[in-house]
Amino acid sequence: MEGGCKALITTSRSPSKRTLELVNDLANSLPGVRKVVRGKRPFTVLLEEAVQCGARHVVLIWERRGMPYAVLFYDIAQRRWKPYALKIAGVRSRRDFPAFVARRPPAKTAVVVDLAQSEVGEIFSEVFGYPLLYSLDVRGFDTIILVRRGDGHLVVEFLGPDMGPRASSIKVAKVVYRRV
To answer: Brix domain location, by residue (predicted)?
Structure first.
């Protein structure tokens, strides 16, 4: 994907297995997203790598106590933080689904379907550059990013073309707006 990535996705230092699994699933399910193993590298080195790749954004999965805690977005093109972060209430990995969910080949196309009509769908559409729809009547996409309401939270599910799960699902507790 050299020269063609829209975003780099990475973790905080020393990520847990659950966070790594989430990052691997997202990198496989979202076209134009490249995973970067951070290791002990400072964040400035990641920003330089994003510029070399041609990415517009760096997506950081921040963890707390071994669990994914928030998704932070950094805008490389405008050299500033995005004014929002998604606070994660929970992650349901592929292992947690009742039936076996095999890893699928990397996605080439994606669409955001926002049934909740919330800002989360707009955030995914803006950051990753995918079309945003408000109806589930979609065909011809490898990944469908479904945003719906459930259990008092917004749930972001990554579905395949057969409407089966493609990756981990994320419960978003709230969108945190930061001062830029």
So the answer is: 5-180
